[in-house]
Amino acid sequence: MTAVLLASVVSCGRPDQLPNAAPTPETVRQIAKEAYIYGFPMVDSYRIQHAYFVDKANPQYKGDWNQPHSIARVFTPEDTTIQTPNSDTPYTMLGADLRAEPLVLTVPPIEAGRYYSLQFIDSYTYNFAYVGSRTTGNGGGKYLLAGPSWKGDKPAGITDVIRSDTDFALVIYRTQLFDPNDIDNVKKIQGGYTVEPLSAFAKKSAATVPAVDFIAPLSPDEQKTSPKFFQILNFILKYAPEVSSEKDLRARFATIGIAPDGDFDPATMSKETLQAVQDGMADAWTEVNTFKKDKLDTGQVTSADLFGTREALKDNYLYRMAAAVLGIYGNTAQEAIYPVLAVDVTGAPLSGAGNYTVRFGPGQLSRRESRCVMGGGDQPG
């Protein structure tokens, strides 16, 4: 009788507390908000890299994976995929597929006084490494870029090994252009940026992996409201092995089907669950917009706080989302700082219909080694 009574008591808990119970709409809403803030930079980065390296019909297409693609000009307002590109450092883009084997990136010697950098960005949008004038100097070198599955040691002839936490990574090369007459010199430097698989460098047989069936990305507007956002996130997570600091977070996301093998499917959700997901996405935007208004626009938090390594950001996912919204792929503070002017001295938003003067008092200009550049652009929306 005691055993029967005990069993009855144990089974009388609230349904949402049972181990296999479906999460309540309130719980779904909260997890969807957390997962959206966590995943937005990843999904937006996927949209960009799909345009650059997958969709050959996209006007922003650069070329195939694992090949450097140089743009021997400065970016203009027509280059809309990234919100805030630099205007005096012609770009070279490398989309790195590291599933099969590492890549060897060769950087030529570059004359002293010319700034250049290679910014290494993983699928989380963390800046996990730099090569360039500030970090490694202008002497050139060969750098091995490896994915999470590669456990080898530094081969002979390699300057350094750089490891990515994700199977796909982006490397953004920036090469300083002094003036319009300098463009041929920049082109020559860009021509010296080469990339080859480790097997080719070591003169061994190449490793192979199955081709990826990339799913279609959402547009920037669709990313804000479409629950398909989480299906894209699930796809990305297949190539982003779990790190120890995110074990509990990933487990929580999995309770609503957000995981590398997750079954998140808006088409099969109840009306209440789907609404909870959409409300969670809206809650995420409310939080990031409030953060922008209260912290970024007031200068309490700056771009210097938003970009960097996982360790530097300390898994602050709100900062990471804000960084992606305002200017994805921004440099780490030690490499560059990005003061943002969004309002005038009265607090009114800047408008293309107005004329503005920006004044720097004595001692207020940066004394950083390279350069100071000012540019304008549309507000992200």
Keywords:
single chain; globular; 10 helices; 2 domains; alpha+beta; virion; 5-stranded antiparallel sheet; Immunoglobulin-like; 381 residues; Cell envelope protein; DUF1214_C_sf; 4-stranded mixed sheet
Descriptive notes:
With 381 residues, the chain is α+β, with helices and mostly antiparallel strands. It folds into two domains: 19-49 and 218-327, no CATH class; 62-201, Sandwich (Immunoglobulin-like). It is built from ten helices and nine strands. The protein has helices at 2-10, 25-53, 183-191, 198-202, 220-225, 228-237, 247-254, 271-296, 310-313, 317-327, and strands at residues 69-70, 91-97, 103-107, 116-122, 127-132, 141-146, 160-163, 168-175, 194-197. α2 crosses α6 (228-237), α2 crosses α8 and α2 crosses α10 (317-327). The chain is globular and about 60 Å long.
Secondary structure blueprint with pairings:
Blueprint: H1 2-10, H2 25-53, E1 69-70, E2 91-97, E3 103-107, E4 116-122, E5 127-132, E6 141-146, E7 160-163, E8 168-175, H3 183-191, E9 194-197, H4 198-202, H5 220-225, H6 228-237, H7 247-254, H8 271-296, H9 310-313, H10 317-327
Low-pLDDT stretches are 1-18
Q: Mean pLDDT across all residues, rounded?
A: 90
**How would you describe the shape?**
globular
The share of residues in helices is 25-40%
The secondary-structure class comes to alpha+beta
Strand-residue fraction?
A: 5-15%
Largest sheet: 5 strands, antiparallel
Give the helix tally: 10
Measured on Cα atoms, how large is the radius of gyration? 23 Å
* DSSP strand count: 9
Amino-to-carboxy terminus distance: 64 Å
Number of domains: 2
Sequence of strands across the biggest β-sheet: 1-2-8-4-5
Order of helices and strands: HHEEEEEEEEHEHHHHHHH
